[in-house]
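Postdoc handover notes: sequence design on the structure in folder B. Input tokens:
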């Protein structure tokens, strides 16, 4: 909640904040070459832009990171089939944790927020005759942060969380394609 208010205030006064971390980069990995004429990106997840969701405050949202992953890893090799990456969920919810507000709480640093991230992505390949196959990945990760964390530190946590989500997606999608849809891989 504190981070949401700070980001809102900074947005209104026009202060630019550098976002920690960077988007996952998959250029070093070999592309997954699909037996398809195109790879489309379809976003079905609409961020609510209000608490408890915080993904819209990220420097690179999970949805944007999936878009980059699909552009870097999935390559259409031609042909009549159409591949579509569908983002069904890319949410991150901030949960405030109970902390000791008594005298003993003054002498310890506790975890004050938890970020619950959920990513659900489907890769669907449709043939001209109407036949289609798909592989889906659902990834969930959570991380907590200590009270008193700075905005820069929080942004670094968010960037790392996004990177881990998309790394998990990358691994699951590659395995899923190779095991369940090898006929669409070149």
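Designed sequence:
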């Amino acid at each position: 909640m504190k981070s949401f208010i700070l980001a809102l205030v900074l947005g209104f006064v026009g202060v630019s904040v550098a976002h920690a971390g960077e988007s996952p980069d998959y250029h070093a990995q070999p592309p997954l070459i699909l037996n398809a004429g195109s790879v489309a990106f379809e976003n079905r997840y609409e961020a609510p832009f209000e608490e408890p969701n915080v993904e819209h405050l990220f420097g690179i949202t999970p949805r944007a990171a999936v878009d980059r992953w699909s552009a870097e890893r999935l390559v259409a090799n031609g042909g009549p089939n159409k591949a579509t990456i569908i983002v069904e969920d890319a949410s991150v919810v901030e949960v405030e944790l109970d902390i000791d507000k008594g005298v003993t709480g003054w002498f310890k640093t506790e975890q004050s927020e938890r970020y619950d991230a959920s990513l659900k992505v489907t890769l669907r390949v449709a043939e001209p005759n109407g036949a289609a196959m798909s592989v889906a990945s659902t990834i969930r990760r959570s991380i907590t942060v200590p009270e008193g964390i700075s905005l820069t530190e929080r942004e670094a946590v968010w960037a790392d969380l996004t990177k881990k989500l998309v790394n998990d997606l990358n691994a699951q999608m590659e395995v899923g394609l190779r095991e369940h849809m090898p006929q669409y891989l070149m």
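Context for whoever picks this up: The chain is about 30% helix and 30% strand. Don't rerun without checking with the PI first.
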